[in-house]
């Protein structure tokens, strides 16, 4: 008699579904310029943030980074806990959420990306990294090809070899042409005409020209340089070149930041706008330190509810109260 096996068949092994990917252009963007991964990359973070950071680190490029998608894959935490963990990771300097304009002409659209860095960075680093920069396409230039043509060997001429060749005439080296004096040289040469106590020779002007050019490189003109060198001179100057050298080195103006050069007309510009990690409010990187807007960095304190003052109990008529109690004690 055959023995029947009533035990059910073994079920197939449960395979977790792949993590959902974002649409092309959206999702996670991992930064490349960082150190190799290490076991203690997120050791300084709390347990929840360390758990979420380790999960995001293993996600592929372009993975969906919404709170809802992350909470579905993290069994320990819900959407509120994941949102708080992303905010803490943004403050720690590991991620920034941005909006990027892609496309040209009438086909420009905004995509939402989350830049992730295994190494924590400060606000200045993120602002420089996400600052809008012109995108210029480089056209490769073909290198010149040199073709060598073999020359035939000269045929010896017995008559020409018998006659000694005349000595070659000496070649005169071209004399260097004197260029136009620089504005720094002209400003130094004109000091003696403004104040005779600072009269400099041609050799003195050449020796001090490099120091004066540093002033012009910082945006000053000849009048500013002349006024700074001739102001407050002593009654007698015995060594003008020494005094001018000392003032050029000690009174040099500060370097001012130069205005950014606008991109040429017609060149595409990469437009990037950061958004708050918690509420999604867009803004410039300078206005969103730690990746958070002002309202999310300084949550509103709950307003204190006014509690009415306790009124003293009203005075009771003792005689009436006692009479009422006596009526209750009376037998029916």
Unreliable runs, pLDDT <50, ≥5 residues?
134-147
Helix share bin: 25-40%
Count the helices. How many? 12
Q: Say what the CATH topology of the domain at 27-134 is.
A: Arc Repressor Mutant, subunit A
Task: Give the SSE order as H and E letters.
Answer: EHHHEEHEHHHHHHEEHH
CATH C-level class of the domain at 27-134 is: Mainly Alpha
Question: What would you say about this model in short?
Answer:
The chain contains twelve helices and six strands. It is an alpha+beta fold and 332 residues long.
Model description:
The chain has 332 residues and is of the alpha+beta class. Among the domains are: 27-134, Arc Repressor Mutant, subunit A (Orthogonal Bundle), CATH 1.10.10; 183-250, no CATH class. It is 32% helix and 9% strand. Strands 1, 2, 3, 4, 5 and 6 form a six-stranded mixed sheet that branches. A hairpin with a 6-residue loop joins strand 5 (269-275) and strand 6 (282-283). The protein is elongated, with a radius of gyration of 41 Å.
């Amino acid at each position: 008699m055959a023995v029947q096996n009533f035990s059910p068949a073994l079920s197939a092994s449960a395979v977790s579904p792949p993590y959902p990917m974002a649409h092309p252009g959206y999702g996670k963007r991992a930064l490349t310029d960082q150190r190799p991964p290490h076991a203690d990359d997120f050791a300084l973070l709390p347990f929840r943030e360390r758990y979420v950071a380790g999960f995001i680190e293993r996600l592929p490029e372009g993975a969906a980074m919404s709170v809802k998608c992350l909470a579905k894959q993290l069994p320990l935490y819900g959407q509120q806990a994941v949102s708080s963990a992303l905010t803490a990771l943004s403050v720690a300097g590991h991620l920034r959420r941005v909006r990027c304009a892609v496309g040209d002409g009438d086909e420009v659209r905004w995509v939402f990306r989350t830049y992730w860095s295994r190494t924590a960075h400060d606000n200045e680093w993120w602002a420089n990294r996400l600052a809008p920069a012109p995108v210029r396409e480089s056209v490769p230039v073909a290198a010149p090809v040199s073709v060598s043509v073999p020359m035939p060997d000269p045929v010896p001429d017995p008559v020409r070899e018998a006659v000694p060749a005349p000595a070659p005439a000496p070649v005169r080296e071209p004399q260097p042409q004197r260029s136009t004096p620089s504005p720094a040289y002209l400003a130094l040469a004109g000091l003696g005409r403004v104040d005779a106590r600072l009269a400099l020779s041609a050799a003195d002007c050449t020796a001090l020209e490099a120091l004066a050019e540093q002033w012009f490189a910082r945006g000053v003109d000849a009048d500013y340089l002349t006024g700074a060198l001739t102001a407050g001179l002593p009654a007698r100057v015995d060594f003008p070149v020494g005094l001018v050298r000392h003032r050029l080195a000690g009174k040099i103006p500060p370097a001012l930041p130069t205005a950014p050069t606008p991109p040429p007309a017609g060149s595409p510009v990469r437009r990037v706008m950061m958004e708050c990690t918690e509420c999604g409010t867009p803004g410039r990187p300078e206005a969103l330190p730690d990746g958070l807007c002002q309202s999310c960095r300084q949550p509103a304190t709950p307003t204190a509810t006014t509690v009415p003052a306790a009124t003293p109990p009203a005075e009771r008529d003792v005689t009436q109260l006692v009479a009422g109690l006596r009526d209750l004690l009376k037998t029916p």
